[in-house]
Design a protein that fits this description.
mainly alpha; Nonspecific Lipid-transfer Protein, Chain A; 3-stranded mixed sheet; 3 strands
Length: about 210
Amino acid sequence: MFIMKPDVWIDVFEERAALMELLDTLTPEQWDIRSLCTEWRVRDVVGHMVSETHMTVARLALGMIVSGLRANRYIAKDAKRRGDAPVMEILRDYRDMLTSRSHLPGLSSLSMLEDIVVHQLDIRRPLDRKRSVPEQRMIAVASDLRASRFFPGVKLFQDLRVTATDAEWSAGDGPEVAGHIEALVLTLSGRFVALDELHGDGVPTVRKRAAQY
């Protein structure tokens, strides 16, 4: 029997739209609040997400050349450049990319879901504007972060078992680290503000490893 695979892009578009609803309500002061990406304001995070849908290999290569061959430096500079634009321009550019499927080669729709979920938390947590992301989306993001070598989750949770207390998800073996899946996703992605929300025999190990980042 043929089983149609779910279109992850639909999840991406819905998460982007949910953030759009929040962005439309922000005050000028809230746009300048520091996000969980400590070097970026809320406006810079939004600028970064817009940039990702316009990024090409050629543009990234050129940006790296002028940034000392450091991709992260270029990405950070580009986010701040876009973030310095007037709010109405940032909103317009973000609205224009709500249903964009563009991304760098090597990434995927799951990568973009991971991106919008994590960056949405980067914005929502400092603003105290919580939102419950559908469980299956969080599970998909947590699983990808746990396996991806582009994020610290692989090293943080090596030889540990990570378990969500509010979703049907766990991974790994060893002393347990448990908590709400949002706190786990934040930690897996290198946002350590949620460490106090985790519990279990493996937490001291995670804290020790996180201190090295």
